[in-house]
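User: quick one, sequence for these tokens?
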């Protein structure tokens, strides 16, 4: 019995450090692995740091700035339905600015602050990346390229960006707003918890009846409308409620962008089908 109690006591003693909440750590003792890649043994990492090399097109450092970015669950409370967030969702700086970011993780989980689209000749993989595992602070520096552009900043941990941890950083005038930035722009894909009720079913039935009446009225009389026109009207009436729900709270620009992307996908599919058909027919002819 005494032996069993000793084993239990030892197990509890060894598990106590693992169960204890990690204390806030200031990550200042980073190991330099070259090419702007720094890391330590306690969950801190920086990728793509650049403190002195000017990007092409920058004659000098236009300005030297410093910001503190907080990441955590508590900052998402102002965005209903989101779980994680940065404390600030939008920044704007001059081109060729040297910026130092003090990244603070206020949660007991891993968070990142990443910026994509940077010139690859200067920033490996075209990004600047900072991360912390658990509560702490880490500081990194980069120099922005010239030109007006809007960059995505986000946490790349699975689902953290989708749950709200993202923002945008504009250089100069920027190149427009990015979609789905919490508190800044509308979400492209809205959360949809819609369940088809009897009322919705009634609406669909009404639409079907209206289409049937319209078809009968047109086909029963001489008209310029063709059968294809009737089919198009029917599809339009049936799809309209779905599109209205899809485009709810989206700006005109976002709707146009979505439709253009959809059209591009359709055109690509048609081209692939035609190419496949041509290849198939060519194969048949060559066999003959």
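Assistant:
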């Amino acid at each position: 019995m005494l032996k069993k109690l000793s084993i239990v006591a030892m197990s509890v003693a060894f598990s106590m450090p693992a169960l204890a909440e990690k204390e806030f750590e200031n990550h200042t003792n980073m190991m330099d692995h070259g090419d702007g890649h720094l890391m330590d043994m306690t969950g801190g990492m920086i990728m793509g740091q650049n403190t002195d090399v000017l990007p092409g097109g920058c004659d000098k450092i236009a300005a030297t700035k410093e910001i503190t970015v907080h990441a955590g669950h508590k900052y998402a409370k102002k965005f209903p339905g989101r779980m994680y967030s940065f404390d600030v969702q939008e920044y704007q700086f001059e081109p060729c600015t040297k910026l130092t970011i003090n990244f603070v993780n206020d949660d007991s989980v891993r968070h990142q602050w990443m910026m994509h689209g940077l010139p690859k000749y200067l920033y490996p993989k075209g990004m600047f990346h900072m991360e912390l595992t658990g509560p702490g602070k880490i500081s990194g520096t980069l120099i922005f390229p010239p030109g007006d552009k809007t960059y995505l900043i986000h946490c790349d941990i699975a689902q953290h960006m989708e749950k709200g941890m993202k923002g945008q950083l504009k250089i100069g005038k920027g190149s427009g707003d990015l979609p789905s930035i919490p508190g800044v722009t509308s979400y492209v894909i809205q959360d949809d918890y819609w369940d088809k009720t009897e009322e919705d079913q009634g609406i669909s039935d009404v639409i079907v009846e209206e289409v049937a009446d319209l078809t009968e009225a047109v086909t029963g009389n001489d008209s310029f409308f063709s059968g294809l026109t009737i089919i198009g009207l029917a599809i339009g009436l049936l799809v309209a409620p779905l599109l209205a729900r899809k485009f709810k709270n989206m700006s005109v620009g976002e709707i146009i962008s979505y439709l253009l992307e959809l059209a591009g996908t359709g055109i690509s599919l048609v081209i692939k089908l035609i190419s496949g058909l041509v290849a198939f027919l060519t194969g048949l002819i060559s066999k003959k």
